[in-house]
Amino acid sequence: MSPRFFALLACCLALLVLFPGRVGGTPSTPAADRPKAQEPVMVEMLRLAVPTTLHDAWLNAEVEVWKPWLEQQQGYLGRDLYWDPQEEQAYVLIRWRSRQKWKAVTDEEVAAVQARFVAAINQAAAEDAADPIPLMAASQWLLLASEVPRDTWGSS
């Protein structure tokens, strides 16, 4: 998917977040009049440079290092990994129960896991790079809807 697609998606999401009451012609209710609801699901979006030569090492390190650690975090709901072979970029979308739960994870904890992640990639690729899979961008989104067609995963 092209960078234009993700820029357009981000703009659409921003409009939905900024003007939620305008979708479908329903008038917006002032925040003070709305019932207190659970904080919306947050999506942490990471864009990574993943060259074809490191694709398998990256994917294995994601599964072996980040996945078990994330599953132990309070508020973690799941994640999706995408890879664009033409651009040699990956998108990691991590869902959190709330922004508060996500931000409760300390930078020190993330740095320790990132060090293990880098070591796993370097070991698999027989390299010694300081940052073999650099972070290109990070942002946060509110999850408004999630739909997967019934036949997508081969269900009958």
Automatic annotation (TrEMBL):
Superkingdom of the source species: Bacteria
Keyword Signal recorded: yes
Record's protein name: TIGR03792 family protein
Alphabetical UniProt keywords: Signal
Record SUPFAM superfamilies: Dimeric alpha+beta barrel
Signal peptide coordinates: 1-25
